[in-house]
Amino acid sequence: MQVVTEAVVGQRLEALASTEPRIVVSGNFATPWTLVHLAAESIPTFRFFALNPQDGWPTRRGIITETPFVGAGVRRDDNLKYLPMRLSLVPRLFATSRRPDVVLLHTSTPRNGKVSLGIETNILPSAIEEVRRRGGLVVAQVNRHTPYTFGDSEIVVDDVDLAISADIVLPSPTERPLDTDARTIGEHVASLSSDGTTL
Predict the structure, then answer these.
(1) CA dist 139 to 12, 53, 77, 97, Å?
(2) 136-170 residue pLDDT tens
(3) What are the backbone angles phi and psi of residue 141, rounded to the nearest 5°?
(4) What is the dihedral of CA 106, 110, 111, 115, to 10 degrees?
(5) Residue 63 class from Cβ within 10 Å (0-12 exposed, 13-18 middle, 19+ buried)?
(6) Where are the domains of the chain?
(7) Of 14, 99, 109, 113, which has the fewest beta carbons less than 10 angstroms from its beta carbon?
(8) Which CATH number applies to 2-191?
């Protein structure tokens, strides 16, 4: 793992522009925002693959977001590609029809030759494995505020090509007032049950 500047990461991402890469990203509240914005600024046309993209997700012409879990950041994105599927099937996608070229991670600081994915593991180990197999790029946003968790969350530093340092407190979900979309979904779910239970 080589710690570099944001400019260096931007140059490496920009060099991939001609291939229209697919970039798998830590999602939910472990989004590596600095890396996400670097990709959006450096590559004219590419695909993000992320779980539950949050508010602030870059949406513009040239960025296609693919996800099996639609988050608030892409609900109104005309370029969204929704993939209705089980989380357990995503590794098959990475090995076949949606091969990743880059993986952007939000990790802890290193300990004993490893970093941790902290609060977001999910599909990332399979994405890293496929990118390593294909000779792609793994970039980490290393953050002292990301907790060190064990098991599948641990990544050997040699599996990370580039890293940038960050000192960013992780966001937490806040209670949001129900919008029209949430109310409509709730009404449809409620209409499927005569006794108020959900499916």
Answers:
(1) 10, 18, 26, 22
(2) 999 999 999 999 999 999 999 999 999 999 999 98
(3) -100, 100
(4) 30
(5) buried
(6) 2-191
(7) 113
(8) 3.40.1080.10
